[in-house]
Amino acid sequence: MIRSEAEYQEALRRLEQDRAVAAAQRDALASSGLTAAEVEHAMEPLRSFQAQLEEEVAWYEEVRRRNFPAIRRLTQIGRLIIALRIANGLTQRELAARLGVSEAVVSRDERNEYHGITVERAQRILDALGASVVTHVEEDGPAQPPALLTPTRELAIA
Predict the structure, then answer these.
(1) Which residues pair with 137 in a beta bridge?
(2) Whole-number Å distance between alpha carbons of 106 and 47
(3) Where are the alpha helices (DSSP H) in 32-76?
(4) Could you give the angle at the alpha carbon of 154 between the alpha carbons of 144 and 151, nearest 5°?
(5) Coil, helix or strand at residue 157
(6) Of 68 and 136, more confident
(7) Using 50, 70 and 90 to split pLDDT, how confident is the model at 58?
């Protein structure tokens, strides 16, 4: 996950570099006599890595535009908190100052995507970011017997 402008710029640089490497590798494989299908098969791992990096870049760009993905499980709140910090243009150091903790604490928490965060702590961070959470409850589809249906919460930022 990209968490800073520096990481974003590095990801863009790596993507450009990887595209050049992929083109050279594709040419080398094709000139070695492999069939088109064999070349495509050999290129799959690199394409997979590129797709993952492109997805991370796209996520970061969307978040900077304040276009937050809906979350369907409370365990995803950590990514939303990170997205809010990025969208607000705050560094980890600036968020740490608002919270009265060290930058190392925020860095560690973000690396772990705030896994295991308490509701109270999440609220304190949301308050520091000037954000609130709006819930919309949807019930799961009828695939399970009604007695087993468990409502989930879709969180959005107001």
Answers:
(1) 153
(2) 33
(3) 36-64
(4) 30
(5) strand
(6) 68
(7) very high
